[in-house]
Amino acid sequence: MGITLEQAERVVQAALEKSRELNLKMNVAVVDAGANLTAFARMDGAWLGSIDIAIRKARTARLFDMPTGNLGQASQPGGPLYNIEHSNGGLITFPGGLPILGSNGEVIGAIGVSGSTVENDHTVALAGINAMA
User: Fold this and answer.
1) How big is the CA angle at 86 (ends 80 and 88), to the nearest 5 degrees?
2) 54 CB contacts (<8 Å, ≥6 apart)?
3) pTM tops 0.85, yes or no
4) Predicted pLDDT at 130
5) What integer pLDDT is reported at residue 64 of this predicted model?
6) Confidence band (pLDDT; 50, 70, 90) for 125?
7) Residue 71 CA: distances (Å) to CA of 40, 63, 79
8) Sheet holding 37-42, edge to edge
9) What is the C-alpha separation between 16 and 90, in angstroms, rounded?
């Protein structure tokens, strides 16, 4: 089973709360188990260019069922997945995308966050994930 709209909205709201707490302007995307956009929010003043990045981070995390930062480590020059970011219509391979697990541990979707440093993007995405607990 994939993430429900209610769950996706809860994840987005938790990420937005963390963004406000950190005084950041973020774009937050949640995709379902099929990597389809389910919920999205763009905070006032968040970078327009980060809309696509947030969505692609969420898609990337779901397509490979791993944090985007982990995929990025494997896709460095000389790495086993070098140039993977050119597949699947374009992937994002730096932090800010995380799989969302259901109660049975199965991946039911993913969150992608963009609008600040990759460290802040990851922190905000993690806050969204924690809303599922």
Assistant:
1) 100
2) 26, 27, 28, 29, 40, 96, 112, 113, 114, 115
3) yes
4) 96
5) 95
6) very high
7) 23, 11, 10
8) 37-42, 27-32, 107-114, 97-101
9) 25
